[in-house]
Amino acid sequence: MANDSFEFGTSNKYITGKIEWQSNSNGSNENTSNVNVSLYFKKSSQSTEATRGTWNGSISIDGTKTSISQSITLNCNDTYQKVGTASKLITHDSNGQKSIKISATGGISGTSFNSSEGSGIAVLDTIPRASSVKCESGNIGEKTTISIDRKADNFKHTLKYEFGNLSGIITKNVEKSYVWTIPTSFYSQIPNSNTGKGTITCETYNGSTLIGTTTCEFSVKVINSNPQIGKVYYADTNDDVVKITGNNQRIVRNLSLLLVTVENVTAKNSATITECSVTFNNVTVKNKGAGTFGFSSINLSSNAKAVIKATDSRGNITTTQKDIIIDDWEMPSASIDLHRLENYYAETHLKVNTKYSSVNGKNNIQIYYMKKKRSDSDYYKNIEIGDNLNSKALKIDFPDNMQFDSQFKDIIKAGTNTISTGNRTEQSMLSAFVAIYYGEEINKILYKIRNKIVDPNLKDYTLPSDFGTVTEIDKTQTPYQYIKIPITQTELQNNKETITQCEIASDYDFRIVIKDKFATVTYNVTLARGTPIVFFDRIKRSTGFNCFPKNEETVEIDGIDIGTIKQITRELKLTADTWQDTGISGADLETGTYILQLQINAGENTGLWNEFASGLLTWYANRTNSTNYDADEIPLSKAGHSRNKHIIKLRTLRTPNSGSLKLQICDSISWNGSANVVFRLRRMI
Question: Which of 93, 413, 420, 446 is most buried, by CB atoms within 10 Å?
Fold first, then answer.
């Protein structure tokens, strides 16, 4: 029960009013209170005369007015006298709280107490109502606590949830709090997210009466839901490589084709797999799920890891790794030393030092060489067929990579004649091979290729596609009048010198073939004809240093004629301080460096009496392309009988637009007439 009072003044200064109120709750179910109000007045003892009459007015409770008319006598004794009462049933707010305004107004007409007015706010007792609720965030499938702040000890509650499309009752008749295990069915409502929000509803009951409901929001998290990756394995799918390594689990650098297989990539708890990827050597291959992931050109020299990653619709990621065994391999290479003894003799030394990859001990190296004179067209020799064969010929073009056994015999029958090349060591047939058959008699070629014996009837039998193509041709048509047989290839040992013979006067071409089990590398190396230190040619009456002299009565160094002096005479007339062409330009001289001498002996016209000048000339015989007419003066040393203050100069001039280099001359004094100028040149370089 709540109660209170408040006083107020009136029109008579000796009279004071008072309002007293009290409230009584009707309980939580009704959510109402009975409010009773009494109105009192008193007169101060300081006054000397009582006040009498009928008091007319009203009492208002929360806006409801009750009229009062009461005859009263207020003696001067400071004692309150009740004038009237009023009451009202007040409905509380939904939370059980309520505040109301109480007021009174009125007076005794015809007296000094003709008016009064007083009011105040009454705060009623709070009636217990619906409890508040709070839920802690939690993980799906784990426990969380729902806390209830109940307003009365006898209240009990029903808890409910809503999450996505799901709803249900958590518990009934709970008093203060409840430990709730968040249902795993919530996973299905958030297949694309790791978090979600829902609503808890708390219904408050007093007995069987629903007092009210309150709600709160709660959050849940997805846990233990990363994707699962099943078995991961890999293999080299390059059959040619696997045949050599004998193990598809060893990946050979730059050769193998790596295929990674991922099995059974699965999502958990209502998610779906959105992507599965494999990253290897900084290359990522993606699928929408499990499957195969191919990689080529594996440029790694040592073992590495493949990273497998699975991603689900929630963005959850699981990664795992797979060790990949890598065997290093690079193309075989070689440093080659090929030279004649003392750079001259027929005895020729060949040494090949190879570098190749072991590939886990499965690889090895073979080295072969062929040689031919530079004048020969190719590395094959011709065997004439003969004129008595007048039927058809059959040409078999073998692929360049065709592999042959080390020993076999090629037999071609031509009538009663048999041409045989004998037993030869061969590794590959690099050009066409011609087989002859005569009339209805089929001439056979027996050879063993890739461990398969082939004895085809060349008229009716079609060779397998990997043996090459077969075409009928007219045997009389060039170049099919002969059989081309490869020059014998000679096997070398790695890093061990081999000696062969090459004619001194001939240039040679060497073809060096380096083969490991995976690839073939060919080097073409030249061997120059023998070069003597000094050679005296008695017939040409010439001498060569580091060369055979080419010209008669010369001295040549490295093929350059330094014994012959080239003399050029030009008739010129010079103007003072003016550069003029000598008439020597471009191809008049070979490119090189010359000692140059100039002679003028025509004093009557030039003032120069048997004067000489010499210097070093650098010459370029081909086209020049200078945009500025670049000129280079030649420093000259001068001597002679008399030059009479003449100063002779020489220079070279580059002319633009693919012009020629020119030799120009200048004198400080003009000539009176024309004169012969003699230029003598000896090439040194």
Answer: 413
